[in-house]
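RECORD TYPE: protein structure
NAME: UDP-N-acetylmuramoylalanine--D-glutamate ligase
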Amino acid sequence: MKLVILGGGESGTGAALLGKKLGYEVFLSDKKNIDEVHKAILVKEAIPFEEGVHTEERILVADLVVKSPGIPDTVPMIKALQAKGIEVISEIELAGRHSDAIMICITGSNGKTTTTLLIHHILVQAGMDAGLAGNVGHSLAAQVAENAHPLYVVELSSFQLDGMFRFQADIAVLTNVTPDHLDRYDYKFENYVNSKFRILNNMGKEGLFIYGYDCEVVRQRVIGQKLLPQAVPFTYGGEPDLQQAGGTACAYMEGDTIVVRLDEKVFRMDKNDVSIKGRHNVYNAMAAILACMRAGVDPGAIAAGLKSFPQVEHRLETVAVVAGVTYINDSKATNVDSAWYALDSMTHPVVWIAGGTDKGNDYTVLYELVKQKVKALVCMGVDNRKLIENFSGICPVADTHSLEEALAAVQKYACEGDTVLLSPCCASFDLFKNYEQRGELFKEKVRQLK
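PREDICTED:
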């Protein structure tokens, strides 16, 4: 079988390794340059590859194609493959076809990375052999090929879900769905919602589907259809109407106590004992508790994992306190909903740094929070007009076009006791390679302020 892989990053290289182990004739093609780490793996394993070009004669003869999630279905090469009837799948789909492991899968517009890492942390701390894969950790295909585990915790983006067809999650988590990546979905929110709900594909009645009840889009979709897996809601409110919610299990709040009911077991924990703070992290904790309870983790081990979980890099990560001002790196907040939760969790006056590549954002949902919490907005982007138009009547706004300019502007507004919050609301691609680079550079520059 001829296996062609498009994209030479983590997922593509992992797919190549699995393809080689399966005895396929593997060829990898990346239209950009392949980084040195992954190129060295391909060379070592004697896997043929090309970079800087896609050679049609070598690609269109494939029996099966695995494409990077970053490649849209609309590009000419994918259209050409589809026209020839060649199957195009994701690396996750390839790995799933060759693994019998239990799959705990997490998706959502916001919270999926923290929830994924939290579930994995609890499982490992409890002594379970669990792999970490998808958007975080190492390639699932590479692990199936070289370092197989009986259980995987897999973070799934909508792009990865779009390339999954026979893959089946045993435990699925959908945190929420808010407008994001609409440029990949014909600017139709419904298309993006449909993509997220693909996490339910192939799940049977023995599966567990954990969903964010407080997200109206998700709640209405779940209530409006008959699902095969057990559907379990989690909410920041009181115990939901379980008959309406579609099940007999749930997670909810009793004052400051997180209460989780599943499989005739009850778990209770004070939210203040969870190491990561804020309402959004209560949601993440609830989803993680439900998943770990179903995976068979002892309640004491779940509580211990929740107490010992470290901060997630680039997600409300405290960087430093300089002259009494706390600097927080929330670079992973690339959409409005993420920024909402970040601002909601702030307890001191905020100098807010936002901006980047706008993805069709509607900022109106932030107005009330900005009135309550933000003493100044520092815009950081190539084109800040939309942010300026939305917030200039609510708080002072500074227009800056680099990280250095932004931090200089921050000094004019931030006083002892304030918080400087980098929570951009936007993608990073106008000034930075990705949100990780944006966060790393922010931390580096802040530490130089001392």
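COMMENT: The chain has a mean pLDDT of 94.
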